[in-house]
C-alpha cells in the first residue's frame, strides 16, 4: 500500500471536533467509537453485523492474539483482516495494558516485560520491538507504540518513572516501526493525573513524531471527575492536526464528555460485555433486562431505535431469553448496545458540523436524566 494514513479536520464546535481519517482500507469518521474485537471477534457479533451498526474500525489485542492463535500463524493465513473477515481498518493496541494487569505474573525491565501466559503459564517476552513486529504480522492499519500503564491511584514518583520509561519505549517503537505507507503509528501520552507529567509526555512524543496520539493511563481507577480534569488540558497539549485517541473509554457520558474536550477516537468493551450480561444502554440510561418488571412488557426496548433487538422483539422476550441463558440474548443486546454507541457518535458528528453541539449535549443529558419508561 502506498497511500498514507491522513487526518482531515472538518469542523470544530468549542473543544469538540469532527473529521475523517483516510486509510487504504477505508475512511474513519470522527468522533469514532471502535468496538473491541479482542481475540479477532467482537463477541456475539458477526463482522457484517458490526458494520451494520455504523462502525468504521475495530480494535484487536496484541497480547491475546500473540498467545492464541499466534501472530505468525495469523500472518500465514493472510493477516488479521482476512482471518476475521473484516475488510475495514483495524487498530491494534500494543499489549502494554494487558501485561500491566498480570501483576504477579510479569517482570518489568528497561528492555521490556517478561510474563507468563494466563492461558497455559508459558513464558513470553514483549518489548517495543517485538510489539511492532507482532502488529506488523497482524497487518493492523493503526499500530500503538508499546507503553507501561500503572494503575491509579499511585504515587507520583511511580507515575513519573513509568511515564519516562514509556517515552523511551515510544522512541524504540518509532525506530522499529520504520516507514510503512498505508499504516500509522500512534504514540501514547502517560502521566497519570499530574499536569506537569502529562506535559512532559506530550513534549517527548511530539518531538519523536507520530501519525496520531493517544491519551493513555485513564479509566484505570481514577474516576470520571479526575479523568475529565485531565481531559480539560491533555488534548490541547497534542498536535491539533493529528487524531487524538482516548484509550479504554467508556460509558456514554464518558464518551460525550471526552468529545466535548477534544477527543476524536475511543474504544471500550463495555457495550459488548454489558450485552452479554443483560444490560442495555439506551437514550434513557441503562436498563437491566434481567429485572422482573420486563417479564410481561410487550413494548420494545427503545421505540425510536432501529436495531434488530428493538425492531423485532419485546422487552418480555429479551427478558425471557436472558433469564433462560439463550445465546440470542447476548447477540441481540450486544447489537443494540453497539448500535446505540454508533448513534451517539453519528449524532455528535452532525451536531459539531452544524455548530449545535452544546444543544445536542444538553438534550443527551436531559433524556438520560428522565430515566427509563415506566413499567406497565
Concise structural overview:
By secondary structure, the protein is α/β, with parallel strands linked by helices. It contains 15 helices and 16 strands.
Verbal overview:
This protein has 15 helices and 16 strands. The chain is an alpha/beta fold and 376 residues long. The chain folds into two domains: 262 residues, TIM Barrel (Alpha-Beta Barrel); 96 residues, no CATH class. An eight-stranded parallel sheet has the order 4-14-13-12-11-10-6-5. Helix 13 crosses helix 14. The radius of gyration is 21 Å and the shape is globular. The chain starts with 5 loop residues before the first strand and ends in a 6-residue tail after the last helix. The relative contact order is 0.13.
Give structural attributes.
376 residues; TIM Barrel; 8-stranded parallel beta sheet; 3-stranded antiparallel beta sheet; 41% helix; globular
Amino acid at each position: 500500500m502506498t497511500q498514507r494514513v491522513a487526518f482531515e479536520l472538518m469542523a470544530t464546535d468549542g473543544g469538540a471536533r469532527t473529521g475523517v481519517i483516510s486509510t487504504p482500507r477505508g475512511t474513519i469518521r470522527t468522533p469514532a467509537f471502535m468496538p473491541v474485537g479482542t481475540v479477532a471477534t467482537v463477541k456475539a457479533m458477526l463482522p457484517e453485523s458490526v458494520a451494520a451498526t455504523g462502525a468504521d474500525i475495530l480494535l484487536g489485542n496484541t497480547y491475546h492474539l500473540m498467545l492464541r492463535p499466534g501472530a505468525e500463524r495469523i500472518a500465514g493465513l493472510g493477516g488479521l483482516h482476512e482471518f476475521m473477515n473484516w475488510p475495514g481498518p483495524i487498530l491494534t493496541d500494543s499489549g502494554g495494558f494487558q501485561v500491566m494487569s498480570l501483576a504477579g505474573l510479569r517482570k518489568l525491565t528497561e528492555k521490556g516485560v517478561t510474563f507468563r501466559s494466563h492461558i497455559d503459564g508459558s513464558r513470553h517476552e514483549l518489548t517495543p520491538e517485538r510489539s511492532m513486529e507482532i502488529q506488523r504480522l497482524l497487518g493492523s492499519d493503526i499500530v500503538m507504540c508499546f507503553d507501561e500503564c500503572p494503575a491509579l491511584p499511585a504515587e507520583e514518583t511511580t507515575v513519573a518513572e513509568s511515564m519516562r520509561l514509556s517515552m523511551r519505549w515510544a522512541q524504540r517503537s518509532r525506530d522499529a516501526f520504520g516507514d510503512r505507507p498505508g499504516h500509522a503509528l500512534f504514540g501514547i501520552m502517560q502521566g497519570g493525573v499530574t499536569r506537569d507529567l502529562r506535559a512532559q509526555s506530550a513534549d517527548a512524543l511530539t518531538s519523536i513524531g507520530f501519525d496520531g496520539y493517544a491519551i493513555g493511563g485513564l479509566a484505570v481507577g481514577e474516576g470520571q471527575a479526575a479523568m475529565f480534569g485531565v481531559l480539560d488540558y491533555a488534548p490541547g497539549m497534542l498536535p491539533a492536526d493529528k487524531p487524538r485517541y482516548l484509550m479504554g473509554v467508556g460509558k456514554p457520558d464518558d464518551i460525550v464528555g471526552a468529545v466535548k474536550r477534544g477527543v476524536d477516537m475511543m474504544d471500550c468493551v463495555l457495550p459488548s460485555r454489558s450485552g452479554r450480561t443483560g444490560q442495555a444502554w439506551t437514550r434513557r440510561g441503562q436498563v437491566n433486562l434481567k429485572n422482573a418488571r420486563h417479564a410481561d412488557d410487550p413494548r420494545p426496548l427503545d421505540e425510536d431505535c432501529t436495531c434488530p433487538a428493538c425492531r423485532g422483539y419485546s422487552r418480555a422476550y429479551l427478558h425471557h431469553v436472558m433469564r433462560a441463558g439463550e445465546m440470542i440474548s447476548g447477540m441481540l443486546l450486544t447489537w443494540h448496545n453497539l448500535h446505540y454507541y454508533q448513534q451517539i457518535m453519528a449524532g455528535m458528528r452532525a451536531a459539531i458540523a452544524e455548530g449545535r453541539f452544546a444543544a445536542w449535549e444538553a438534550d443527551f443529558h436531559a433524556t438520560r436524566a428522565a430515566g427509563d419508561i415506566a413499567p406497565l
